[in-house]
Predict the 3D structure of the following.
Amino acid sequence: FVGGLFGIYRVTAAQVELSQKKSDFVSSVSHELKSPLTSIRMYGEILMEGWATDEKKKRYYRYIHDESERLSRLIQNVLTLSRLERKEWQTNLEELDPVELVKELIERLSPQVRRAGFELSAATEGNPLPAKIDRDALTQILINLIDNAIKFSKTAETQKIVLTVSQINSECCVRVRDFGPGIQRQQMKKIFEKFYRVESELTRTTSGTGIGLSLVKMLADSMGAEVDVRNCQPGTEFTVRLKGVSG
Ligand code: ADP
């Protein structure tokens, strides 16, 4: 009987905690939507009124562009999470060259990453073979990992992010490395949980909703891929292990 009561208590406590996390999530998403929108509106007004010099105009246009991209990524994350949870996410596995995909992504993201003060580069180890990849899923995974690398190593001495593609036996690995503070060993499993954010000064001063890495994990699962993390002193390295074409 006591065991039963304890069981009920645990289930209830877990549900209360989940509902608290959901409500925190709604408020952090609203906050994340509101603050860039306020800036976009403000810069839009300055531009419309003609108050900016030519040089400032360029900066404001870029700012509006980067902030809208950030908003799109946040909305994309929320939509993907909802699709995955409702089992409405369609996986589309193709035989793709990961080196090519990473190269295209770097070309697309570099200007924005540079404006955030970081250098984004690619490296290849060995001779990576084509793998079974869902292009949208891998792109979203890498964008989330790069976003986090920028967010959490803002004060690092080395402002660099390196994407490495390598082949290990039948698996193709894509690694995302930064040179920031790293992640404590006891947090390494928890960071992939939905809504989980590490309690620290760093997370208090950075914006976030706690869904990025759970999404990374779910998207990897959908491709039959795996994700892990390790500390590199300095920095963090996430690895996505993709199945080879024959695997
Ligand atoms: P969010 O970025 O919204 O906080 P995530 O699910 O993307 O949520 O990440 C969960 C937590 O993992 C973060 O709050 C942060 O503490 C930690 N984290 C993720 N990526 C990094 C990184 N590259 N360096 C250090 N800590 C990280």
The CA atoms of residues 5 and 163 lie 50 Å apart. The two ends are 49 Å apart (CA to CA). The chain has a mean pLDDT of 91. The helical segments are 2-49, 54-85, 98-115, 135-152, 201-204, 212-222.
